[in-house]
Amino acid sequence: MDATSAGPWAGTGLDPLSGRVLEFLVGHPAADAGAVAEAVGVPADEAGRALRTLEDELLAIRIAGRPTRWRAGPPRSSLGSLLARRRSELAQAELYMEQLHEVYRSVSGPHAPHLVEVLERAEEVAARYGHLLKASRREVLHLAKPPYVTGTETAYGDGRDRQDGRERAAGETAVHDGVRLRSVYDTEGFTDEMSLETALRGTAGGGELRLSSGLPVKLVVFDRTTALLPVDSDQPSAGSLVIHAPALVAVLVALFEGLWERAVPMSLESRQDWPVPRQAREADIDERTREILHLMATGMKDDAIARVLGVSRRTVQKHVSEAGTALGARTRFQIALLAAERGWLEQCPSPAESVART
Question: Which residues of 60-72 are buried (b: 16+ CB within 10 A; e: fewer)?
Fold first, then answer.
């Protein structure tokens, strides 16, 4: 038996030491407190307290004499009685939980909290997200689209959270091993450093990523039983809804699956599924293309880049298209990421410097 943790005793209410003492007594006809202490490796007074605990639970029997000796009761009957008491206590606790829930429902307003919860504050959303993520055991489905902000919004995407620009400790809000994480990111979300890093973290543990354009809503579905989505996708600070209603969750799952089927699969870890021609490894690009790619990677649209550089929108698109062909990239996100990998964005002039050149 495992003597280093609570092991099988966690559900009985016994502390680990009492469990170890009982395991020793079961294998010995009788023993005094000193022998028990030596066997389990604790001081005699601690062994004595454990023996008295077992006596109170009717699991150990005191044998009169000097010194006092102890033996275990028949495990099937003595432990059976203890487990029966624990089951009765749990049943009473469940009944009390239901009573408390009825009180909660009666004072929580008219919005039927058993079907939909309304979270108005950012800290409420972050806490609820973390709780739902930790409770997930099978699958997490995720739609991510801009605008992205620090704090709660990153929680909508990668199995992690940020507060004030700092990541939480690893594992604090991460999905459990064995939980399948599938994410669809809006292509417009892959134009700034935060969204790129968020996607990388989300897939680092084996999560699956696909890209699509024009996602209708931000969404996370946990184990196909609960969904989290913002009240207003364009205003992340407006709060979020937690959906429990089975019919509504089923509709949101169907929405996700439809978008997933039409989205483009993507791997961010190896990127081996992105064809990279030989010339992309050997060729260089001119300074104008480098400037355009740099501005594109910061999140600027073609029209904005054209205005900054004093060129036409067609010129911007031509440079971007040529860079994509050289890199073998299919999307703007691939172009930006592969350009960074090739070092094409290093030592690039700032937007102000680019304007000064024109």
Answer: bbeeeeeeebbeb
Beta strands in 154-239 (DSSP E): 162-163, 166-167, 180-186, 208-212, 219-222, 226-230
3-state helix, strand, coil in the chain (%, to 5): 50, 15, 35
For the chain, give the longest Cα–Cα distance.
102
Convert the pLDDT of each residue in 40-70 to its tens digit. Answer: 899 988 988 988 888 888 888 888 888 888 8
Residue 269's closest CA among 204, 332, 205? 204
98-102, 268-272, 290-294, 312-316, range with the lowest pLDDT: 268-272
Q: pTM for this structure?
A: 0.47
Distance CA 130, CA 142 (A): 14
**Quick one: tokens of 8?**
């099988």
| Domains by residue range for the chain, with CATH | 1-107 (1.10.10.10), 116-266 (3.30.870.10), 278-357 (1.10.10.10)
86, 13 Cβ separation under 8 angstroms: yes
Question: What integer pLDDT is reported at residue 227 of this predicted model?
Answer: 94
Give the per-residue pLDDT at 153. Answer: 42
**pLDDT band with cut points at 50, 70 and 90 for residue 32:** confident
Q: How many CB atoms lie under 10 A from the CB of residue 113?
A: 16
Rounded Cα distance between 32 and 48, Å, is: 9
Q: How far is CA 166 from CA 76, 158, 160, 163, 171, in A?
A: 53, 14, 11, 5, 14
Higher pLDDT, 12 or 123: 123
Which helix (H) or strand (E) segment holds residue 243: the answer is strand 240-243
